[in-house]
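Page 42, continued from yesterday. The earlier attempt failed because a stray header line got pasted into the input along with the sequence. Redoing it now with the clean sequence only.
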Amino acid sequence: MSDSIEDTELKRFYQSLIQDLKSTQVSEEEGGILEQIFTQMAVDLLADAGETENARVAHDEGYLGTKNQHKINAYAEPDNYETIDLFITIYKGKDEPTRLAKEEIATAAKRITNFFSKAKCKDYVNEIEESSQIFDFAHMLSTSGDLTENLVRVNAIILTDGLYPGEIPENKNIAGYPIFFRVIDLSYLYNITEKSHIPIEIDFTRDGFEIPCIISPSENDQYQSYLAIISGAALATIYERYGSRLLEQNVRSFLQFTGKINKGMRKTINEEPHMFLAFNNGIAVTAEEIEIAKSEDGKGYLISKVKDFQIVNGGQTTASIYHTFKKDKADISGVFVQVKLTVVKNRNDFSKIVSRISEYANTQNKVSVSDLSSNIPYHIELEKLSRGIFTPHVTGQINQTRWFYERARGQYKNARIKEGFTKAKQKAFDLKNPKKQMFNKEDLAKYVNAYREIYDGNKLRIGPHLVVQGNQKNYAQFLNNNLIDKPDNIYFEDIVSKAILFRTAEKLYGVKPNAIGDLRYITVPYAISLLGYLTEYKLDLYKIWTNQSISEGLQSTLKDLMRLVENFIKNSAPGALFGEWGKKQDCWLTVKEKFKNTPIPIPPDDLLNPKTRPRRRISDTEVENSNFKETEETIKNISAEKWKVIYLYCKENDEIPNYFTNAVHNLGRKLKEGIRPTSKEILLVNELLNKIIYKTSIFDEE
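This time it went through. Structure tokens are written below.
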């Protein structure tokens, strides 16, 4: 791709980003400042790419312009306390992308490290209000024994909507903790939006490591395998440099430095490092490309360079070696690990093959198959339902709308571009698919997990405390404990009702200075769970779906519940750490026990009526037909001139297979001649449009 094309695509991405930020600011009940909305969008993109998890936006700044200046916009603290992520934002918000000066990056680096230095001291936490967004985190930094014992890495991440091609600030050490700097600029955000993650390239030879290997004799067009031995020092070095970015995206959230396996590894490293290779199963790695060199004696091969190094099994092994090396000051010079490295040749099937390797490789970790793929049937079925089901007619609303389920990031934007070549068509799409009715996998997990607790025997698997723990952790528990085999229209409609209930609660909670309090992210899911528990889950969800809202009486009850819950959590939290208390199962059990006999006024009309006629289930065929009709209508609305442009684009682009190009040619010709295309042609061309929607300006407004 030429620089000019890249520049055009980057500008298009920037304009789309700015529009999204402003649209979100307008649509959010609490308003919000653009800098923090951008921060949320940026950390969400990084989370989708697996480069952070459970990040929470929390702003604090002070003494700007002085040597004691500090600032933070967000943070992330994994359960194992091994690594924390600190985010600081430089937001420009200009009409065109702005280049940042080195001095601006240096200032941001100074501010975020000053925050860490201050937060490690108790004086800072004593200066801020307990209701501050940053209080829990600052308190944890200054008092947590687990953090003091386990923390080995601090990532200071500078987020910006500008462009910065310059040097990254040098890593430093503060209070005995290594600080690693990263700059996530507009170009990086664009790349992870397009590619999910930025390939990691490792030069083992330059770093002074020899990785002996043997090449598998198996010949095929999908992959090439290598068996290698890597030193513990090499693994520790690259893990320190890249952290969890080394771990393949679908499994990194599930790997923690806990459990019997890791204790055994730690003991071996400390007491019998020479036995590690014999005792450990090794790691499985995938790569896009590798470079092989002859060993100095000419008798074997060495892996010298690797592009897109991803550990699909062995994250615990890698983290254990690094953590033991750092924490216990262990001598790892005698530690070696076997590696099965797979180079995926077929780029079109890269994600699918890597996902399958992850699935079959992960046997020592208790990770279900559903954790390892975002393309599980559940999500695919839910997406189909969301495209084929329209809301009922609501009083005061002219048209019926859809709740758009975004199974994969970018689907909503793609659909809007594909269906809206002109302003009129974009408006039509927006009326049918309001942005406020779009929700993703993490939203889905939040709405469903908050509504109803789930037990497995006597063990609580799902509850509001999981929602408080953050999107990634909550979503992981949803996958493991709250999926159903076959979603249908009733299930989908109930999900929308739960979404309406959750979002209404957030609105009722309010914003300062008129908010109920300052714990919305805790109080809302707890109050909804308590509402379900006290009503024995007999709310009439179909009524909420039918009206696309909840009654005034139910709103009043929900608001009262939120006041009760917030006050109780604040009074019951040990040490005023409301955020940490809200994440614990004991908090939810305590709330239930406190309010289990509390009478709450629920309008009878808002409860299920056993005499009501059962709801009709829509057949799979009806859903498929509805989805195909929507796709066919979209295809037919594209003009003959546009089809010609699309055909020429495909013909001149070597990356597009001929069968796509031929399908576009045939479909464009048939539409021009008034001949109805086959369903296969329509589906094939629709697949192509989804692939190239952001790759070219041909989809820009006419």
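Notes: The chain has a mean pLDDT of 85.
Reminder to self: strip header lines before submitting.
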